[in-house]
Design brief:
Layout lengths: L3 E4 L3 H14 L2 E6 L7 H5 L2 E4 L12 H11 L3 E3 L9 H9 L3 E2 L4 H8 L1 H10 L7 E2 L6 H11 L3 E5 L8 E4 L5 H16 L4 E5 L4 E11 L3 E13 L2 E7 L6 H17 L3 E11 L9 E7 L6 H8 L3 H9 L16 E8 L1 E2 L5 E2 L2 E2 L2 E3 L5 E4 L6 E2 L6 E9 L2 H13 L2 E3 L5 H8 L2 H4 L7 H10 L6 H11 L18 E9 L2 E11 L2 E6 L2 E8 L2 E4 L2 E2 L3 E4 L2 E4 L5 E5 L15 E3 L4 E6 L6 E2 L4 E7 L2 E6 L4 E6 L6 E2 L4 E5 L5
Parallel strand pairs: 1-2, 1-4, 2-3, 4-5
Antiparallel strand pairs: 6-9, 7-8, 7-9, 10-11, 10-13, 11-12, 12-15, 13-14, 15-22, 16-17, 18-21, 19-23, 20-22, 24-25, 24-32, 25-26, 26-27, 27-28, 28-29, 30-31, 31-32, 33-40, 34-36, 34-39, 35-38, 36-37, 38-40
């Protein structure tokens, strides 16, 4: 076993690797950007080395600086985590040339699976089923259009390099092919420096089921499957293991296919073979096809660990140190069921826009495993993926595990930035998902109901009001005492953009009526603290005049100064502003041009994704205030429409 390893990553995966290293007595070296100087993974490691800069290109993608840091700190090996340099074969070769061990597969294996078209050809030779499609080198748009027609619509255009849903477009009609191709190529070019694409038949009732494999360079085993069908924008949201509806016959067929794939390239370490599965008529051994192989540890690996009892990071370290496979296939079994939900800082109603901000409060329930790279007080940076944590649960059955997931999400507390927590909770309660009726289109079909903002409960507002006005303490004997009428006070709070009038009436010690709009909530103090209409108080966090009340429906109640002048809700529809810091990838309009509500006016690239900025109304472009390639801050005005009053 190694004495010291360097972790060439950040965030939750760096912390995850450090956890296992601590248990094994292995010394760890963290690297960090200037932005991450006080990050959790830096605090956890035994040694930390600065890479400088802020963006990935200035820090976590500097392979030479990472190798130098490993040599300077006495590390014998480098663990890449996922993302960044984890699937870069040139980095692997540089690590080995420096006399260090790369904890992962060989450069040859990574290259074999790095381009989706070549990987599919290799898998077909190895007897692994592949989806019908075009994987050739001819990238002429006209030729690709003919190939798409030959395959038959709908088709999926996919970048041959990279992953994470980037450079991927679904085209359902022939007339949309050219625009879909241009969009996919542009995104792939920006993300990977390679705009080559492949075209595949799109399975109409698809499920995304992947198999965890592990090899020692000669032999491989599989650690069963994960269902990752709950996706939006081709990015996973909730994963589970095992897959609902899986039969022993199909599990065996998929497992054997995945092992053949790994052994065909002499795979070493942890990897995942992803399959697209036709779920239209149940799971069948002839209804799955190879999609791609991720030659690294996956984000969702904890659900596999939960059902197998295996620490995959430990296995990575042991095999990289020269050991053979820690377990034979017959020694691996499934125990129970596990779910993982990805908690992100993002504005769901605004189209899942990545968000930034300070985590004023962050807490997870003891009943769940939470893999995170941040703590209370940390700032979500615009430079990196906005993941806050992965919430993982395990139970003896799917039904029990799902109930535990719902409870864990309800007991996860985040204040200070917007998150997808309510969305995850709605998804966990969704009737179809609860029944195991899942496919990759579920979120898209049910999006409106999943992101619907229900009316905030008066009980939650009442609790926020009592807390904000300092009335949530243990009452004294004379609280509320008056000779004539009960003490009363009119106050105002805001929920989102709405001003909510409230009235507080003290009925005596520990007895306060809170009128929210026209609803009266009785707040009463008893042996177990305050109760609201008989319900126990929720957990709450207060800071700077706002109270975050946690639960199935988290609500933020803000105190309103009656002397403040209301500025109105929302921004002007005349202005198209950058919702976050980013790069203006393309502007589609010019001054004097007439636009219609919903027209795409510009594309902003931020947090590794492209975001379309749309016209909020019909009108005429008065001024274009940003050009292609401009770096802009959040709130910067990019385009101005002619005022409707003009």
């Amino acid at each position: 076993m190694f004495d010291t390893i360097l972790i060439a990553n950040r965030g939750e995966i760096a912390c995850r690797v450090i956890d296992t290293c601590r248990r094994l007595g292995v010394r760890t070296v963290a690297v960090h950007s200037d932005v991450d100087v006080d990050a959790r993974h830096v605090e956890m490691a035994d040694v930390a080395v600065s890479l400088g800069g802020a963006s990935p290109a200035e820090s976590y993608l500097r392979g030479d600086a990472i190798i130098a840091a490993a040599q300077a700190t006495g590390a014998q090996a480098i663990h890449p985590g996922y993302g960044f340099l984890s699937e870069n074969p040139d980095f692997v070769e540089a690590v080995e040339a420096a006399g260090l061990v790369f904890i992962g597969p060989s450069a040859t294996a990574i290259r074999a699976m790095g381009l989706k078209d070549a990987a599919k050809a290799l898998m077909a030779e190895a007897g692994v089923p592949v989806v019908p499609g075009y994987h050739g080198e001819d990238q002429d748009p006209g030729h690709l259009e003919l190939e798409a027609a030959e395959i038959g619509y709908p088709v999926l255009i996919k970048a041959v390099a990279g992953g994470g849903g980037k450079g991927m477009r679904l085209v359902e009609r022939a007339e949309d092919f050219v625009s879909g191709l241009e969009s996919a190529k542009a995104e792939a070019r920006g993300a990977f420096g390679n705009d080559a694409v492949l075209i595949e038949k799109f399975i109409t009732s698809p499920r995304h089921i992947e198999v965890q494999v592990f090899g020692d360079g000669v032999s491989a085993v599989h650690l069963f499957e994960r269902d990752c069908s709950l996706q939006r924008r081709h990015q996973k949201v909730i994963e589970e293991a095992p897959a609902p509806g899986m039969t022993a016959e199909m599990r065996d067929a998929m497992g054997q296919a995945a092992v053949r794939a790994a052994e065909a390239i002499g795979y070493k370490g942890a990897g995942t073979v992803e399959f697209i599965v036709d779920g239209s008529d149940g799971l069948r051994p002839d209804g799955f096809w190879f999609m791609e192989m991720n030659t690294r540890l996956q984000v969702e690996h904890p659900v596999t660990e939960a059902i197998t009892g295996v620490d995959l990071v430990e296995w990575q370290l042991r095999v990289a140190a020269g050991e053979s496979l820690p377990c034979a296939q017959e020694g691996l079994t499934i125990s129970g069921h596990s779910f993982e939900a990805r908690l992100y800082a993002e504005d769901v109603p605004a189209g899942f826009l990545p968000a930034t901000g300070r985590l004023a409060h962050l807490a997870f329930p003891e009943s769940a495993r939470a893999d995170t790279g941040v703590r209370t007080g940390d700032v979500i940076s615009p430079h990196y993926d906005p993941m806050i944590a992965k919430v993982i649960v395990h139970g003896p059955s799917r039904a029990v595990a799902l109930r535990k997931l719902r409870r864990a999400l309800a007991e996860t507390h985040v204040a200070g930035t917007v998150t997808n927590l309510s969305f995850l909770g709605a998804l966990a309660r969704h009737e179809g998902f609860s029944a195991g009726d899942v496919d990759t289109g579920l979120i898209g079909r049910e999006l409106e109901s999943l992101i619907a903002v229900s009316k905030t409960s008066p009980i939650l507002i009442a609790q926020g009001v009592l807390t904000l006005f300092g009335l949530d303490k243990m009452p004294c004997a004379l609280d509320g005492f008056t000779l004539w009428q009960p003490l009363a006070q009119a106050v105002s709070v805001s929920i989102e953009q709405d001003i909510v009038p409230c009235r507080l009436v003290a009925r005596g010690p520990g007895k306060i009526d809170v009128t929210v709009n026209d609803t009266v909530v009785q707040a009463r103090y008893g042996a177990n603290g305050w109760r609201y209409d008989g319900q126990p108080a929720s957990a709450i966090f207060v800071e700077d005049g706002s109270a975050t009340v946690f639960g199935d429906q988290t609500c933020v109640v803000r105190r309103v100064d009656p002397l403040d002048v209301e500025a109105g809700a929302g921004g002007s529809s005349d202005l198209i502003e950058a919702p976050m810091p980013g790069l203006v990838r393309q502007v589609f309009v010019e001054a004097g041009q007439t636009v219609t509500k919903g027209d795409r006016l510009a594309v902003l690239e931020a947090m590794k994704m492209e975001h379309s900025l749309l016209a909020a109304r019909d009108g005429e472009v008065a001024e274009v205030m940003a050009e292609n390639g401009a770096q802009v801050e959040a709130g910067a005005v990019l385009i101005r429409l002619q005022s409707e009053q003009a």
